[in-house]
Amino acid sequence: MFRNWMFPRTTRQPSLFSEMDRIYNEVENLVGKRSTAREFPPVAVWANGEGAVVIVEIPGIVPGEVDLSVAGNLLTLRGERKSRDKTLGAQSRLERTSGAFSRTLELPFQIEAGKVAARSENGLLAISLPRAEADKPHRIAIQG
Amino acid sequence: MSEILDVAKPESHSVSDKKPSPAPQGPERMATRAVYSPAIDIYENAQAITLLADLPGVDRSDVDITLEKSILTLRAHGKAKPPEGVSLIYAEYELGDFERSFLVSDDIDRDAITASVKNGLLTLTLPKRAPDKRSITISD
Question: Residue A36 and residue B86: Cβ atoms within 8 Å?
């Protein structure tokens, strides 16, 4: 099982790893790959003070077959992209990732689990994750 | 021998490389979007070659497939837009268009090529022509 620490608790230790990332990305550019993700499915996270929208690329997966769960500040996606259809014959090119996946994303806030909504269109799964009321900052009036 | 080969890959850019690649030529494009090479699988059996291409965010009406001479070109223009009122804080992919070309061998029945798009996955079926068998009468 993979756990992707999107927002590491420790401060970022850049130099060596970001340099490795840069080299990795350059190699990927040479072979024409679009995604820099080493995990499947690739995600993008959009956020503001009220919550976040996580958009996941799941082309070829029936949306209902993705299992989403939320706990605290963690979102977990589980599912499977079917591997080759044997009736189609021998494969001569295999670039699409297949098989079972499980990813856990850590968000920078507590999620209001009861208000999470997901919508899928054309192989993009958009999950809206409102921030828990208790997690939002409170304005404190100064007396006197 | 049936074959379907990549002709040329468009330039693609990753998240770390912010330079947008040139948009495809044509008056219909309003904004410049990056063009990516979609991930594909190719299968072959006795009847057909099947090509699967990942086109996340692309509707069937946004896919354009052309066959000119032996070059089959797949172009797709995704309509997915960034959500409003939020900013991007983490990304493993970028929104963009897709383009990839293939060289199709002569034994493919060009008039029988079919395509379908479902859940952002393109399935392109290229049936093989029945072998051309002719008996030639030998004259005296």
Answer: no
Q: What is the ipTM for the molecules in this complex? A: 0.74
Which range is least confidently modeled, A36-45, B60-69, B119-128?
Answer: A36-45
Q: Which two tokens stand for residue A112?
A: 């209001």
Is position A113 within any domain? yes
How far apart (Å, rounded) are the C-alpha atoms in residues A9 and A15?
18
B9 contacts A59? CB cut-off 8 A: no
Question: What is the dihedral angle through the alpha carbons of A118, B18, A29, B115, rounded to the nearest 10 degrees?
Answer: 50
Which residues lie across from A4 on neighbouring strands? A105
Instruction: Report, as an integer, the average pLDDT of B67-74.
Output: 93
Strand B35-36 to B97-104 pairing:
parallel
What's the CATH code of the domain at A121?
2.60.40.790
Separation CA B4–CA B44 (nearest Å): 10
> Does pLDDT of A36 surpass 90?
no
Can you give the pTM of this predicted structure?
0.74
Q: Is residue B137, in this structure, part of any structural domain at all?
A: no
CA dist B103 → A40, B1, B52 (Å): 29, 13, 16
Q: Please report whether residue A105 resides in a domain.
A: yes
Compare CB distances from A29 to B12, B38, B85 and report the shortest one's residue.
B12
* Residue B39 touches partner A, C-beta closer than 8 Å: yes
**Confidence at residue B95, expressed as pLDDT on a 0 to 100 scale:** 83
The residues with which B57 forms a beta bridge, in sequence order, are none
